[in-house]
Design brief:
It is built from 16 helices and seven strands. Helix 9 packs across helix 10 and helix 9 crosses helix 11.
């Protein structure tokens, strides 16, 4: 009843072994499957949306997003016709925003090439924007019951353990072998339920760190368990750790006609987080030998205590409590030595100089506000946030030496060619809390802005 060995996960199973695995797994799935909104029917568009959302994201997190998304874009045609800003806003908080853009681009292809209906054709589905081998297999098997493999991390873990496969699942050759194995196991006429059963077993029972072998429906013939390797499998080489970047952001408060508002900007049309809105911020330069950023996060007791050491409620070091010099020369590297107050003072100075050099935006940082992390697949942003007062916009780049004993009004009056508060470049905008409902922000800025609106002082 065992499968014969092979390399790279490529095994030729006997009819008896395949029948046992498929029969037991299907019986367990039909009795134990979760009631999930994308399982209410086999509409290929609904399956497609769910599979894209579930990439890199937990089921519990996806459910409310999926329900809102389907209510707003119930068909491929509705998604294709929607403004991209609405799609991104509906996706806000899920991360990996290229998924949303690719999904909408794929929906437009479905409308243009297939009359608005996801086709029952493997090659046509695979050709859609953002649809890879796994998503193709999931759509074809779940929606159309075609015997196609849908191999994700859950499936590779289950099959690696069950057949005691010791090849590195991070290698493409291993994935290809496991896809061939998965196809050989699909019971006739039950491709959709079988693929979902494999995923469900990996999600609920054969979990990454604590496999529930005693409740597994196929435990009796699991080679990994019998070899005592259920905690060692699957073999997966470690990915390169994401690099850490310090980003210095400004909560720029408006005055006059913009009192109660904050200054935000739209990101470029391409690249990371394209076209989304954010706080003005700059990438801090790397400083050889500089100490690692403190691990305090947010504005809780630890962060407030740290702020008290620097002058109370996150005040910047004493040297910057008076109006700072703005836009004087190029930004200088951050110092490697000194304590936290000195480090934050240097960050505030760098922030004002860099925003001036990059966008012609003159601001005066007045206090350290808080910090938070934001994790991408390849980068971790260490976000240091400062409260700042608006100065003016420069015309055509860097202005001269702007100092301050007379306040920001005097600074604006001295600005030759300055546009004045409110006349921001096209990609900048003053917003109040109500506009958070319409503009799409990356999750890190949602968290910061929501905290600010709750306690703007």
């Amino acid at each position: 009843m065992r499968a014969s060995g092979g390399q790279g996960g490529q095994r030729v199973t006997t009819t008896e072994a395949a029948a046992y695995f498929g029969k037991e797994l299907l019986q367990w799935y039909l009795a134990n499957k979760r009631d999930l909104p994308w399982r209410m029917n086999r509409d290929p568009y609904r399956v497609w949306v769910s599979e894209i959302m579930l990439q890199q994201t937990r089921v519990d997190t996806v459910i409310p997003y999926y329900e809102r998304f389907m209510a707003k874009f119930p068909t491929a045609a509705a998604l294709a016709e929607a403004p991209e800003s609405e799609v991104l806003k509906c996706w806000e908080g899920l991360g990996y925003y290229s998924r949303a853009r690719n999904l909408q681009a794929g929906a437009r292809e479905v409308v243009a090439r297939h009359g608005g209906a996801v086709p029952d054709d493997r090659d046509a589905v695979a050709a859609l924007r953002g649809v890879g081998p796994y998503t193709t297999g999931a759509i074809m098997s779940i929606a159309f019951n075609r015997p196609e493999p849908a191999v994700d991390g859950n499936v590779m873990r289950v099959l690696s353990r069950y057949f005691c496969l010791e090849n590195d699942i991070a290698k493409p050759s291993t994935r290809i072998g496991i896809e061939k194995l998965a196809v050989s196991l699909i019971p006739e006429g039950a491709a959709g339920d079988f693929n979902q059963a494999l995923m469900e077993l990996g999600a609920l029972v054969c979990t990454p760190k604590s496999p529930g072998c005693l409740t597994c429906p196929v435990m009796r013939h699991c080679e990994g368990r019998m070899a005592g390797k259920e905690h060692e499998l699957p073999v997966k080489s470690k990915a390169k750790a994401p690099r850490r970047e310090t980003r210095i952001a400004a909560l720029v408060a408006g005055s006059g006609a913009n009192a109660g508002k904050l200054l935000v900007r739209r990101r470029p049309d391409s690249g990371l987080l394209a076209q989304m809105w954010e706080l003005p911020h700059v990438l801090a330069p790397e400083t050889p030998g500089a100490p690692a950023p403190a691990k305090r996060r947010g504005r809780g007791k630890a962060a407030q205590a740290a702020g008290a050491e620097a002058g109370g409620r996150g005040e910047i070091a004493a040297g910057l409590e008076q109006p700072a010099l703005l836009a004087v020369g190029a930004p200088a590297p951050l110092p490697a030595g000194g304590g936290e107050p000195d480090r934050r003072a240097a960050m505030a100075d760098y922030l004002s100089r860099a925003l001036s050099a990059e966008d012609g935006l003159l601001v005066r940082p007045v206090a350290w506000w808080g910090e938070t992390d934001h994790v991408f697949s390849h980068i971790v942003w260490d976000m240091q946030v400062f409260r700042a007062e608006f100065g003016f916009w420069q015309a055509g780049g860097r202005a001269g030496h702007i100092g301050g004993g007379d306040g920001l009004a005097a600074m604006a009056a001295e600005a030759s060619g300055g546009y004045g508060e409110g006349a921001a470049p096209d990609h900048y905008r003053w917003i109040g809390p109500e506009e958070m409902d319409t503009l799409a922000f990356p999750n890190v800025f949602v968290r910061i802005l929501q905290a600010y609106w709750r306690d703007p002082d």
